[in-house]
Design a protein that fits this description.
By secondary structure, the protein is an all-alpha fold. Helix content is 77%, strand content 0%. Helix 1 crosses helix 3.
Length: 114
């Protein structure tokens, strides 16, 4: 049973994850779309012909932005040295969270995980 301090710490952690991951993401996404549309698209007639309404602009941004985000995320995870640096820092911060090497280490030190 967690202590009262542990329960409060869990609530604080859940609050930070929910707020940072979901609420601010959604607010930032909507704010960016509305700001760009009303400040940039509405003032340029060529772009206003391409995006006559905020809904069409938001759908285009969602489609193109999703594809671009997936591509950037893939590059970050697979091709960028920054992800391996993040993992190294995570292991330094929590040495109990590690990855066993295949072969001898896995069979001898942690056979139950295989």
């Amino acid at each position: 049973m967690p202590t009262k301090l542990g329960f409060g710490a869990r609530l604080w952690y859940y609050f930070r994850v929910g707020y940072n991951t979901y609420i601010t993401f959604l607010l930032g996404y909507v704010t960016t779309i509305v700001t760009v549309y009303y400040l940039a698209i509405k003032s340029m007639h060529e772009l206003l012909d391409l995006f006559p309404s905020l809904t069409i602009f938001a759908i285009m941004v969602a489609v193109v932005g999703s594809i671009a985000s997936i591509g950037v995320g893939w590059v970050h995870m697979k091709r960028s040295p920054m992800y391996s640096a993040e993992v190294d820092i995570g292991v330094e911060a929590n040495p109990y969270n590690f990855k066993l090497l295949p072969g001898y280490n896995r069979e001898v030190y942690a056979p139950i995980l295989s």
